[in-house]
């Protein structure tokens, strides 16, 4: 586990957005504590050229990062990382401007614990569900299920 897959994460984001969307691209991230949601966003940020440290936004709910205009990933101009674990009401999303963010075409929004704000998530969000377990011989095995609302694909 850990490290590695940043290139794949960036390729996934670019492929998802390559249709030049009229609004934000949204990844809804699901999985228990420690399953890899934050690690995924960190790898994605690195793959997109974000130089800043990308900590979990658990206590601030949201962090926004500028994406440099590098040719490999020139579509997105900003990455928004939201941790909905502590969100108690949709009013908190209004305060951080979530509805406005959803209308920003060159923005990639990653929402950890998206199920906690399901009613605010756009219908076309890509859902990624992370799970992990101890692997034989030590280490950790991770699995990612991904798809749009009623489809599921699996990668280990």
Q: How much of the polypeptide forms β-strand, as a percent range?
A: 25-35%
Order of helices and strands: HEHEEHHEEEE
Instruction: Give the N-terminus to C-terminus distance in angstroms.
Output: 11 Å
User: So how many helices?
Assistant: 4
Shape, principal axes of CA atoms:
globular
Helix/strand-derived class? Answer: alpha/beta
The strands making up the biggest β-sheet line up spatially as 2-3-4-1-5-6-7
Biggest sheet layout: 7 strands, mixed
Mean pLDDT across all residues, rounded? 82
Helical fraction: 10-25%
Poorly predicted tracts of residues: 1-6
Count of distinct strands: 7
Supply Rg: 15 Å
Q: Which helices and strands appear, and what pairs or packs with what?
A:
Layout: H1 6-17, E1 25-30, H2 37-47, E2 62-66, E3 78-83, H3 90-95, H4 98-101, E4 107-112, E5 126-134, E6 140-147, E7 153-155
Parallel strand pairs: 1-4, 1-5, 3-4
Antiparallel strand pairs: 2-3, 5-6, 6-7
